[in-house]
Amino acid sequence: CVLCGRTDDCPEKYGEKSTYLEYNLTVHYYCLLMSSGIWQRGQEDEGIYGFLITDIRKEVNRAAKLKCNICKKKGASIGCVAPKCKRSYHFPCGVQKECIFQFMEDFRSYCWEHKPVQKFSVKGSREPSQCIICLELVEQLPLYSVLKSPCCKNAWFHRECLQYHALSAGVFFFRCSVCNNKDKFQKEMLRMGIHIPEKDASWELEENAYQELLQCYQHCDIRRCLCKKGRDYNEPDSKWEIKRCQCCGSRGTHLACSSMKSWEQNWECVECRSIFAKSGNYSKQQKRSLATSEKTGGTTCLLEEPSPKCPRPSSGSQHSFLLQSPKIMCQSNVTPCSRLEFPASNRMTMSLSPLMANRSLSMRKKYLSQQRREVSNILKELKLQVNTKTTRLNINTKNIWKSALKGFRQRNFSPTNAIEIKFTGCRNRLTTDTSEGSKHRFFKLLMLNLENSSLFEGSSLKNLTLDSQALKENLYFEAGRMMAVSLVHGGPSLGFFSKTLFDCLVYGPENVKPALEDVADVGVAQTIKMIKYASSLSSLQSAVHDCYEFLAAAGCLRPVTTLCDKNMLVNDILTFHVIKRIISPLESFRQGLKTLGVLEKMHLHPDAFSSIFCHEPETLSAETLCDLFTIHCSSDVNKVEGADFWMGYLQDVESGESVVTLEDILLFATGCSFLPPIGFDPEPTVKFLHIRYPVGNRLRNCLELPLTKTYEQFKKKMEFTIRNTLKVERE
Question: Where in this chain does the record put each PHD-type domain (predicted)?
């Protein structure tokens, strides 16, 4: 640059650097604007930005006689405008020394001693606040790098963040990020040296930026889409034509998926119908839809399909209906149509009898078992990607997370390789266990470590936290990748995800409505409760005033004029704290879960994967183990007698009449103390042989049992062998 003498090309700091070969000139835009002895005497298309070439050369000659008070070199073209101040400096030197350059009116410049300073309240809090733009901490001190909004009490910015925002937004869209004030905010920021270019916003100048708005929505959002060619398939004038919601147009369904016979039938998505219901305008539409369905001979599934925003169990039977609510709404033989005819008060006041409660619980367990079987088949399909090449991970038992992270980040690690685990850090020297046992143990310890790590918050059902250090180190991605690899390679069910976190992963955070139970921070939860349970307008306004700073930092400040405003305010706080605050960790975590195609399968089978992400793992029972192990006998063995002893022993263990547990039996036979969602490979078997003591063949997941004359002998041998074998292993 002919004015500052630097080669730096940093448009954010020094403006655009342009070279004009015909004039043999290179100049920074800001150096040209702020030079004290030059004015725009030409038109915009004359010279350089309206500065005549002769004037620029005169300014270069003038500056060549002035020494910079900062770097002590010649060419200082900018001078402080304060009276009696003789300081001169280059533009980059002034930026480095924290001078203020005002990009308005006469383009004044102030040195580090005479620069304008914002006035901060002495009584205000001196604790760090969040920058409204980057959400990092910012000190509430009169520093050059810190700027305060003139229109909001507790809105703080990093100067660098605000400058980047101004360059992107331009003069038409640059305003306070909290209250949207434009005039007062821009005036103060110009005074404090923020350059606001006179241009349209960068997002407005992007070519075809809004092209997607010209596209019609073509996607079937019904939970159980019947089209074999996919949800995006649309064939006009057929049953696979996609019909959009007549109210919002942002949801769709195949005609066949909602049992519509004609495209002329009206169809509304669940979100729009809920709005109609709250406004009292839905009854007429409901009657019309029912009448239409009767005429066409269809069912009411166009009224009953679950929303992609509010996922529910997807079965259409009355069994799934009982699973959705702890209240009984009607008898099991009532059809969906007749169910709609009951008043809401009659449906919701009939509590479950003990018999019906047990039945509902039994049906819920049956439903979860079906979903887990579906997950098992999906994970087995994903495991086909795993090849025979082996990657060994050296795992320190004293620091599972650190050694696992090191192993997953090593150059030769690939999720599609078979995994071999070698535990180190033990008292005894261990050789590599080639069976699946060490791998099962590793994944169980790793998932337990993740559950209790700083990446998640909550008591039993957890959400992601905002840990800036973990985000910087990409730990959320690694956690997601570890969980995906664990599920495909035979790890345990997770079971600690909240419904909100799971729905954010599957349906997207914009389609999820969090609840108060998702807030783990006691202080934030208390703030929300104060607002939510305010009984009068004055108490609501008092609660808002008490947490003013928190609401301002969260961007949730809104005028409170009626008591009803509290509902929108609570929703804003919940959405910010539970979802918007952790958008970056969530996206990083989602990228990790894409490993081996796990997240894609979650999108296609949300109900199935919910059974292993959001529900506690299946509890072992005698019936579960009896179904898990297939009995094989040789021709000379009495299968019935051996099976009776085996099943009787399982029942004794379950009832506590044994020194071993069901987990011990499973561990003895397979090397795994839990039921992996993917299942066992090969499937566990029981063999009755002429042997003295039981043998657990973990390579084949085979439990070889002795033939005995009495049940007491069988039980004694089982307990002696299993207890002592596991005792030696644990030691």
Answer: 1-115
- DSSP letters, 302-313, are HHHPPPSSS---
Bridge partners, residue 396, by sequence? 424
pLDDT grade for 321, boundaries at 50, 70 and 90? very low
Take residue 481 and report the two structure tokens written for it.
Answer: 């990748």
- At 608 the three-state DSSP class reads helix
Q: Where are the beta strands (DSSP E) in 228-370?
A: 242-244, 252-254
Q: Which residues pair with 554 in a beta bridge?
A: none
Q: Hey, is 82 helix, strand or coil? A: coil
Does one domain contain both 663 and 640?
Answer: yes
Q: With residue 667 as reference, give the H or E element that holds it.
A: helix 662-670
Q: Is residue 405 part of a domain?
A: no
Helix H or strand E encompassing 487:
helix 475-488
The pLDDT of 428-454, averaged and rounded, is: 77
67 and 99 both lie in a single domain: yes
* Percent of all residues in the chain with a pLDDT value above 70, rounded to a whole number: 84
Tokens of 521: 């921070």
pLDDT value at 721 more than 90: yes
| Exposed/middle/buried for residue 652 (C-beta within 10 Å: 0-12, 13-18, 19+) | middle
Q: Looking at this protein, which amino acid is placed at residue 413?
A: F
Give the span between the Cα atoms of 442 and 427, in whole angstroms: 17
Identity at 429, one-letter amino acid code: R
Q: Are 269 and 221 in contact (CB under 8 A)?
A: yes
Query: Element (H or E) spanning 155, and its range?
Result: none
Segments forming the whole domain that contains residue 137: 129-204
Q: Give the pLDDT of residue 635.
A: 59
Residue ranges of E strands in 164-314:
242-244, 252-254
The answer to whether the CB of 683 falls within 8 A of the CB of 630 is yes
H-type helices in 97-220, by residue range? 159-173, 183-191, 202-205
Q: Residue 506's pLDDT is what?
A: 93
Look up tokens 């910079």; give the residue. Answer: 68
**Do 707 and 637 form a contact (C-beta atoms < 8 A)?**
yes
- Together in a domain, 136 and 105: no
How does DSSP classify residue 514? -
User: Is there a single domain that holds both residue 545 and residue 654?
Assistant: no
Please give the angle made by the CA atoms of 315, 316 and 321, to the nearest 5 degrees: 80
Last residue of a domain, one of 573, 602, 617: 617
Do residues 106 and 137 both lie within one domain?
Answer: no
Residues whose CB is less than 8 angstroms from the CB of residue 269 and which lie 6 or more positions away in sequence, other chains included: 221, 245, 247, 248, 250, 251, 307
- 135 shares a domain with 91: no
Distance of alpha carbon 453 from alpha carbon 462, whole angstroms? 11
pLDDT band at residue 640 using 50, 70 and 90 as cut-offs: low
342: in domain: no
Q: Within 10 Å of residue 275's Cβ, how many Cβ atoms?
A: 14
Cβ-contact 337, 283 below 8 angstroms? no
In a domain, 434, yes or no: no
Q: Is residue 117 part of a domain?
A: no
Give the number of domains in the chain.
4
Domain final residue pick, 617, 636, 668: 617
Same domain assignment for residues 613 and 628: no
